[in-house]
Design goal:
The chain is mainly alpha-helical. It has 17 helices and 2 strands. Helix 4 packs across helix 12, helix 12 (311-346) packs antiparallel against helix 13 and helix 15 runs antiparallel to helix 16 (476-508). The longest helix has 54 residues, at 417-470. It starts with a helix and ends with a helix.
Amino acid sequence: MDIHTVEKMEKKALKSNQGDFLRLGMAFAFMALVLWYAFGINAGAQNQAFLAIAALFGAYMALNIGANDVANNVGPAVGSKALTMGGAILIAAIFEASGALIAGGDVVSTIKKGIIDPSQFVDVTQFIWAMTAALLAGGMWLNIATKVGAPVSTTHSIVGGVMGGGIAAAGFGIVAWGTMGKIVASWIISPALGGIIAAIFLFTIKKSILYKEDRLAAMNKMVPIYVSLMSFAFATYLTLKGLKKIWPSIVDTFNSISPVAVEMTKKPTLTEGLVIGFVTAIITYVIVKPMVKKASLKLSNSAKDANSLFTIPLIFAAALLSFAHGANDVANAIGPLAAVADAVQSAGISSKASIPIWVMLVGAIGISLGLALYGPKLIKTVGSEITELNQIRAYSVAMAAAITVIIASQLGLPVSSTHIAIGGIFGVGFLREYLSDTTEQERIEAEEQQLAEDKQQKKTHKMELKELKAKSVKSDEERKRIDVLKALIAEEETRIESEKKHLKRAKKSKYVKRSAIMKIVAAWVITVPAAAVLSATVFFIIEGIMS
């Protein structure tokens, strides 16, 4: 290795270290700012110090949600080249923060998913300790998962943290084991539903567009329909999940400007969501139909150009998924923090707690900052390291994410958006493997036949060369033939070696990386117990220090 190569490696390492220190410094600065602010609130109140510590851990949790969970919203769009990494981070950061601040709600459940009974806590102090431990444990587990490149559910992380802290404080009887059973079931339900729905959409698009001889005509006919279906699904999804916490305000505003008051529920129903989705789909179709027709005049009959028509819908999907995620999952960061803040102010334990604006800002800014600083690693994992994605495959994953959440929410199933998105990616990958089995086998057989023919040709040339070399007297033509044969044999040896390597790779190639499956599934399975053990450990440490 020469001195110039060493210098280049040193410069690269130095640049990487400087970037790591800068990211770490910005994260610490954010947490320090939150800690300083929280110390000044309710100064002199009992357990004030724990409010500041909980705020610090809440900021840490929010940073790790941004680093890990947001990747599921934008990863497919980045992997399919619909968005650049920088564009994806910008869009996700804006819409995650907007979702949290606009639609995050004014009140949050202090006990996420109702997994423990708050009435069984001995006193307020133990409740505060348990929620503080849950925040730190959830953040620590997400930090570990991000470090190893495994996208996990932040909801399951905080559920495990709350469960572990609750058990440490009041014993196993505090846990609603029936609810925990549903959460365990979601480990299977979420990815299975996501995978099936994504595979169905991908297969349908292949049959209706990609497998057609006249792809241009198929594009003109079907793309507006698929884009309208996406708008229908996302409008319904956003109504039911992204806007549910501010729905009463929307209803009141609508009734104040409408000449006729419309009786609407205080929470959006499936019917209301479907109506909004249907109207949105019709408007989308009217707008998109002429746009696709105009764009098709410049397109060819290729699959690549068919993919290009799904680019803009994917960008909107990434934005809307991020908005809904911010509106819903901000509670994972601030729910326990809001519970601690409420307990400190009221000196009691409530099942619901109001969310101060500073607490909401901790969640919103923390998620966006965590995404910007540490999100690219998981975005790459989701977008390109599980299976290869293009725009149509990424569209199928996005549709699976929206539709699965709609179905599951109506059935009362506690599904994870992370598991759905990753399941969708697995689904499109395995469908590609299934559809390509016959074609791939025929290609491998053709390559094996070609390899056998090349080997036979090489053997024939070697025998001819051996016979010529055996002659004691050779003519000029025979000497020239010997030189030609040597060159041919050398060329054939190189070609045969290349064909062997290519054939070996073809036989081993899979559309879904098996190592990624094992790593991600293992992380999913141990998320709740790992976060619970961490939380219980933190609780006992706090108890030991405070005793």
